[in-house]
Write a structure and sequence with these properties.
Elements (H helix, E strand, L loop, with lengths): L1 H73 L16 E3 L18 E9 L5 E5 L7 E7 L4 E5 H4 L4 E6 L11 E5 L4 E9 L6 H9 L2 E4 L27 H12 L7 H9 L15 H21 L6 E2 L2 E2 L11 H10 L8 E6 L14 E5 L11 E7 L14 E3 L13 E6 L9 E4 L5 E8 L3 H4 L9 E2 L2
Parallel strand pairs: 6-7, 16-17
Antiparallel strand pairs: 1-2, 2-8, 3-6, 3-9, 4-5, 4-8, 10-11, 12-18, 13-16, 13-19, 14-15, 14-18
């Protein structure tokens, strides 16, 4: 009896251990599955944030760059600040740009005076007054947060005295009589103006015309009366382009502007990682994996934008002409590239062409002499004017020279045409022995040439017209 009971107990005990073993294996399996699930979730979160975030960086680059520039120019962020004007006011730069005063301007022109300002029409329109410039060329590029442009100026509306109202698409209200409405897609944006100046003798008249351009919110607008100045607001400068703050500024911008119908699917992808227009980006609420992915996205996005600045542009007889400026469609890389190099006008307002090499395909340097020759009747066909300027590399800035000439074109005083009606411009660092040569001084080292064609005619826009190539003489 005793042995039978003992064996039974042993059997029961062994059975219990077997059950416990099964349970243990099931628990281990569940733990393993849970671990694998969490690991997979983390991988997905990180990789999705990295891939979608890199695209978001390229897409959002103009939004964040505009936010940066706007903050740093409507606030006093430096003691000796180059550009400052409160919101809905203009900053005017009444000097002809040269190497001593170009500041942070990238590839500045020497043909016009600059003025600029930031607008906010989220609550009400902003009125812009332009005087009668009596045919003098001027343009104001109205740039939205996407860095896309519409123009106010001689080409679009003429040069009579005019009042314009920048209005948002959803604004409901009435404007004063004789005020032209100009619809802007985003409620905030930038104005960059250019006023033609022929040179030092023409500067006072150009400055006077520029000073008579002003802006005011609708509620403070009075006909023929410039609004009062605003007190300065001080702040610390911001630069969110190289930190995770980028996504905070991008998200804030996306939540403040209407989503384009054609980009709803893209915005849904951005929302998947917490940065789209239907999200409230908060890094503290994101998982460690998502933050890790966004760090990678930031690094990759910066590399893409940097590379976009150096990619090959189509060449037309040695001149590189950007294909899309001011309107970009879905070409977000081109948009970021233009923003990184500065903001541009629409091609029909002004078309720019750049040359780095001469006819022998060698990089141009001040050690050589070059010429740009236009046969009779082959000058750039423009309704405005044209000029060519040179910039030292890699700074992309004007270089000092003994005659203080930084561009030459169809309005240059004393320009000499050849007996057959052709035109030759000499690009060299040293003064030519022949004083009658049309001399455009160049930097001593590597340089690039930029041809600007204002109000270009159709042959330029459709690439039927081809600029003459710069040729090396020695």
């Amino acid at each position: 009896m005793t042995s039978k009971i003992t064996m039974k107990k042993v059997s029961i005990i062994l059975g219990a251990f077997a059950v416990l073993g099964i349970l243990a294996s099931q628990i281990n399996l569940a733990a393993l599955i849970s671990y694998q699930q969490k690991r997979s979730d983390a991988i997905i979160a990180e990789k999705m944030a990295a891939s979608i975030g890199a695209l978001a960086y390229v897409y959002g680059y103009p939004l964040v760059d505009m936010a940066k520039q706007m903050h740093n120019e409507i606030h006093k962020v430096e003691e000796n600040q180059q550009v400052y004007a409160p919101i809905n006011r203009l900053h005017r730069y009444d000097e002809i740009v040269g190497p001593e005063n170009a500041g942070n301007l990238r590839l500045p022109n020497n043909d016009t005076l600059y003025f600029s300002g930031w607008f906010d029409i989220s609550k009400e329109p902003v009125i812009i007054h332009t005087p009668d410039t009596q045919g003098r060329y001027f343009t104001i590029a109205v740039t939205n947060l996407y860095s896309e442009v519409i123009h106010i100026g001689r080409r679009t509306y003429g040069t009579d005295e005019t009042y314009y109202a920048l209005v948002s698409p959803d604004w409901q209200g009435s404007l004063p009589d004789n005020v032209k409405p100009v619809e802007v897609e985003t409620s905030k944006g930038w104005l960059l103006g250019r006023m033609y100046v022929a040179g030092k003798e023409d500067k006072p008249a150009a400055v006077d015309a520029m000073n008579n351009i002003w802006m005011a919110s609708l509620s403070e607008f009075t006909l023929d009366q410039r609004p009062a100045t605003k007190p300065a607001i001080t702040s610390e400068p911001i630069d969110p382009l190289q930190s995770l703050e980028f996504f905070s500024y991008m998200n804030k911008a996306l939540r403040s502007i209407p989503t384009r119908a054609s980009e709803q699917a893209l915005m849904a992808q951005f929302d998947l990682i917490g940065i789209g227009p239907n999200s409230d980006f908060d890094p503290e609420k994101l998982s460690e994996a998502t933050l890790k992915g966004l760090e990678q996205a930031l690094e990759e996005g910066m590399k893409i934008v940097e590379a976009s600045e150096l990619r090959t542009l189509p060449s037309y007889n040695g001149w590189m002409i950007p294909q899309k400026v001011g309107r970009y469609g879905f070409d977000y890389i081109q948009r970021a590239s233009v923003v990184a190099n500065g903001y541009g006008n629409l091609p029909e307002e002004s078309t720019y062409a750049a040359a780095l090499t001469s006819g022998d395909d060698d990089i141009m340097t001040g050690n050589n002499t070059y010429k740009l020759h236009f046969e009779k009747g082959q000058l750039p066909p423009v309704k405005g004017f044209w000029s060519v300027a040179t910039y030292e590399l890699p700074k992309k800035q004007l270089a000092s020279n003994e005659i203080n000439r930084y561009s030459i074109g169809d309005r240059t005083d004393g320009i000499q045409y050849n007996d057959d009606g052709s035109l030759t411009i000499w690009l060299q660092s040293e003064r030519p022995e022949d004083p009658n040569k049309n001399w455009l001084p160049v930097p001593e080292g590597m340089f690039m040439a930029v041809m600007r064609m204002y109000e270009p005619e159709q042959p330029i826009l459709n690439k039927e017209y081809e600029l003459a190539r710069i040729e090396r003489v020695n």
